[in-house]
Automatic annotation (TrEMBL):
UniProt GO MF annotations: ABC-type quaternary ammonium compound transporting activity; ATP binding; ATP hydrolysis activity
A Pfam family that the UniProt record links to this protein: ABC_tran
Keyword ATP-binding: yes
SUPFAM superfamilies registered for this protein in UniProt: P-loop containing nucleoside triphosphate hydrolases
Species of provenance: Propionispira arboris
Signal peptide per UniProt: none
Protein name: ABC-type quaternary amine transporter
InterPro entries, per the entry: AAA+_ATPase, ABC_SmlMolc_Importer, ABC_transporter-like_ATP-bd, ABC_transporter-like_CS, P-loop_NTPase
Alphabetized UniProt keyword annotations: ATP-binding, Nucleotide-binding, Transport
Amino acid sequence: MSLRIEHITKKFDAATVLSDIDLEIRDGEFISILGPSGCGKTTLLRIIAGFLTPTSGEIKFNDRLYASNNYSVPVEKRNLGMVFQSFALWPHMTVKEHLAFPLQSQKVQQSKDVENRIIDKILAVTGLEKLANSLPGELSGGQQQRVALARAMINKPKLLLMDEPLSALDADLKLSMRQEIQNIHKITGATILYVTHDQSEALAMSNRIVVMKDGTVEQFGTPEEIYGKPQTLFVAAFVGRHNMISGKWDGKQFICKNGTAFPAVPPAECFIEKGICPLRPEELEVNRDNIGICVEIVSKQYNGREFLYTAVDADKKTYHFYAIVTMLFSAGQKIHLTKKSV
Ligand SMILES: Nc1ncnc2c1ncn2[C@@H]1O[C@H](COP(=O)(O)OP(=O)(O)OP(=O)(O)O)[C@@H](O)[C@H]1O
């Protein structure tokens, strides 16, 4: 059982928005589609949902053809649920009515009793019991998004498509809704495709992440692989904000441009070819003996326990690193950075 996205290309007139996307998603996986604005995330989701047809390639779900350039199973026959950034609730319908609607739209109608039991269960799962008779205008943003989630799940879809469902919520609410979505994933066992441009969301929630750039897949892997072993410069910069140290590799040793050397695990081939050692901000530290890369402090951001500093070297290349609050640097100050020894 799986979702197959086979060599999907999508063109809008002359513009190629998706180029040969080829992915196999296993039954019950939580997959995030991560990438910057305009890279084609929503277009891919809309093709899987059935709102757009691919220019070439095929979508198959459990070996059933859902879409090709001349065939498309209608949206309502794809056994999927959808949640969008805008909650898309009807202002005149109560929470309960929102949940009854998908049940009543099914080919086989259930008795009122069965319908009520299903609705009560989903209200309990999403913590909406007390709000069953409320209208959307009487609900908070988080509660409205919960209604949208409950509505997407009520017909027990095998596939849940979510397009930036948390982006309209504030930071606190985002965190609790993340847990809620993970909970829903556990309870339903549905395969979830979750579009986001927020790397922390993708890292926290997914079994695997698809990192996209300009309509292509840059890397498809577990959060640990994406964060710890980026395969391209783009993934390294986009996820984990890696510092790209210039120099050359000599086996398991990296020699910086200024001659400073440190041991490091060799990264993917493209970094070795380009003479780059990708290091995350937490892998760099200030060297008090003036050894390492000389940088000038540009700015700092306080995060409670430490500061995240931004600095530039003589070539104006940017570096990010953390330092505890007692080690205070000011803009313009010159310091040296080395790789933390493990
Ligand atoms: N119906 C359309 N007609 C023409 N171009 C389109 C259409 N839909 C999307 N595009 C273009 O396709 C590209 C990808 O859009 P898409 O919405 O898939 O990106 P995205 O990664 O989801 O971006 P965001 O994170 O900003 O939502 C964009 O350049 C967009 O302008």
